[in-house]
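Hello,

Following up on my earlier ticket. Below are the two sequence lines again, exactly as submitted.
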Amino acid sequence: MEKTTLISLEKLNQLRLSDEQRESVLAFFDAQQSRRAELERIDTENVERMVHVMPIMTVVREDVEKKLFTREELQKGAPETVDGYWQVPRLVD
Amino acid sequence: MKYETVIGLEVHIELATESKIFCSCSAKFGGEQNDHVCPACCGMPGMLPIVNKHVVDLGMTAGMMLNCHINRTTTFDKKSYYYPDLPCSYQTTQLFAPVAVNGLVDIETSQGKKQIRIKQIHMEEDAGKLVHDDWSDTSLVDFNRTSVPLIEIVSQPDLHSAEEVIAYLERLRSLLRFARVSDCRMEQGSMRCDVNLSVRPEGSNVLGVRTEMKNMNSLSAIERAIEYETARHIDAIENGTEELVQETRRWDDLKGKSFSMRTKENAGDYRYFPDPNIMPVVIDDEWFDSIKATLPELPEVKKARYMGELGLNEYDAQQLCDSRALCDCFEQAYAVCGNAKEAANYLISDCMNMLNKAGLTADQLTLSGAGLGKLIKLVTEGTVSRPNAKKILAALFEQDVDPETYAKDNGYIVSNDTDLLKTVVKAVVASDPKTVADYKAGKEKVLMALFGRCMKELKGNCDPQTLREVLIEEVMKA
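Thanks for your patience. The regenerated structure is below:
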């Protein structure tokens, strides 16, 4: 991995690494990438994609609307609310 | 040099479900802020998602309507991004095994017929809504829309003009409304479109720099945005007015311009990974077949049948086929009365007027088709006059009443009492000698005034033809 890619990932993950930490992370990713390259050499043609390690499937629920909580209950732990909204620091896109 | 515009669309469709995709909160549009929320859709720690089966039903339905392959094992993935309208800091969506892939949609433009390839349809949750409060210099968060179910329909870059894009979107809207996947109301945001556009020299097979305009929600704005963006790209290529970069842009319809929002993210930036909280959704044969059995006849097939088998003209057939609710009501009414033209007329004129007055769309019609059929039978048999049929229809529109019972209870059954008819006609004729004289002098149109007064006296309960005959007879005698 390039250092610039790592810096971009730091930004996305809201992290700030020291140069020393960066070197350690880059070495870790390099090792992972060579393992991945090894795996990619395996011929997986005609092998069904594994979606889960266990032969398991999700349960689904019927489409029935239920109101289980009031707004007031949900906002009890909110630092700030205004007119039923959660209030957060201003965001500029 | 001549250029070709290359456009791919990502269309978000809000699904017609009662509850959200991963919790039981209401998925209805609107409501008081944060009234349709629970710990799961607010992203509170420890809450786990449970998939709404109907979302998968509708995802499959959309896939089948757009001729896609349905992945019988479909999985959910997490797409990471930080923004306060997304309380989990990730969106649960589908990347690795979306519900439907490799579809085809037929469109028709002034250039002829064409097929647009669908790359995939995936199910996902919507984000919440942010309101920026200038007064307190803060942002306010409403999670009502968070986790409302969506499908995203991703096309291949097969579109080359605004006209093709509009034809494609209209076709999607028609098919998905017909299959009751969504109401596709752009003004309410239940159909939104991201336009990916690039420009290249005609004949080249290398794609140019791509820009994306997000969340477009009106066909006319999309058309204007495509025309503007195409011109901007060509200007940049030919005249070097600016450097084109891959980015997300915002379309300002009032200014008629697009503005840079942010550098376009790549899939890697979202750090997708399989959602460990949701096991694979496995669609067995029984489930698959049950959805296939509910697919509606396509609008154009219905239209051809209405014209060929039922003898409707093209205009009437098209009007009906614009809405599945109109078609269903029409077919139920026709099954009862056997009179396609009458059923179409009542629906296209009277019912549409009533819907417009009530501020409803054709898809919101709840009129009983069987009731309408019975009413048409009463009219064609001469049991109820046409003016009174309109009053009965208005009642039928409001509530599910039996037309015959309602007609009897309200005195709308045509009277066969010829003595009463003659008495009324004689009285009207005697009261207006001037109009009688005008008619006798050759002004035939004035007869309608007398006819109307007689009808009013009889409260509409007479056969118009009989009334006309008796009226002419009495006028000539006078």
